[in-house]
Write a structure and sequence with these properties.
The radius of gyration is 20 Å and the shape is elongated. It is built from eight helices and four strands; from the N terminus they run E-E-H-H-H-H-E-H-H-H-E-H. The chain has a domain of 137 residues. The protein is mainly α and 207 residues long. The strands form two sheets. Strands 1-2 form a two-stranded parallel sheet. A two-stranded antiparallel sheet has the order 3-4.
Length: 207
């Protein structure tokens, strides 16, 4: 029976988990950043469409107000962080991979290489926003370089690891079909948050 281990050296009947380093994880993260920008762009188009309808009904200059809406406020920052954290947490908690991780062949697992749960996914992504991701991810880089499992601070606190999907058996990760509902749900979450943020800024709503 195949046995899964954490150490870099094992016997021939053992499966070796390959922990993902900083560079490949940064590439996956950048892919997700680009995707979330696309989601935000689509949300902006939908916002213009909805405002145009409202303008036709009410006669108020709503579309013009969108271009004048401020984007640098504490509420924009909060909603932006919620969108990013929610996207990564939903994808990793229900499947193990975001779009970026899937493209780069990575998966987030628990330290014992069982499928990542929502709790661990939530912790690791909150810590990324408030600590690991600061100063161009320097805290994450420094900690990962000292970790045999390439764990950043969020991984250590959430008891998670990021490994190459091909290096672990299917029993240690969720089936591929689960990516579709997880990804759609996470994308919809980020889209709704972006839409709410744009509408709030345009219509002058308060949190």
């Amino acid at each position: 029976m195949e046995r899964l281990i954490l150490s870099p050296v094992g016997e021939s009947n053992e499966t070796q988990a390959q922990y993902a380093g900083f560079v490949i994880r940064a590439g996956a993260r950048l892919t997700d950043v680009v995707f979330l920008y696309v989601v935000g762009f689509v949300a902006a188009i939908v916002t213009v469409f909805l405002l145009a309808i409202g303008e036709a009904i009410t006669g108020n200059q709503l579309v013009a107000r969108l271009s004048q809406a401020g984007v640098l406020s504490w509420w924009n920052v909060v909603l932006g962080m919620l969108s990013v954290c929610g996207y990564h947490t939903i994808c990793e908690g229900f499947h193990g991979s975001t779009l970026g991780k899937l493209v780069f062949g990575l998966v987030t697992l628990n330290e014992d290489l069982t499928p990542c749960k929502l709790k661990g996914a939530t912790i690791r992504n909150l810590v990324f926003i408030f600590l690991d991701g600061l100063a161009a991810c320097i805290p994450a880089l420094l900690v990962m370089n000292r970790s045999p499992e390439k764990q950043r601070i969020g991984d250590q606190w959430g008891k998670t690891v990021v490994v190459r999907r091909s290096s672990v058996p299917s029993t240690s990760r969720r089936p591929g079909w689960r990516f579709v509902p997880a990804f759609v749900g996470a994308s919809a979450f980020s889209f709704v948050i972006a839409l709410m943020n744009l509408m709030r800024a345009t219509l002058g709503g308060t949190p």
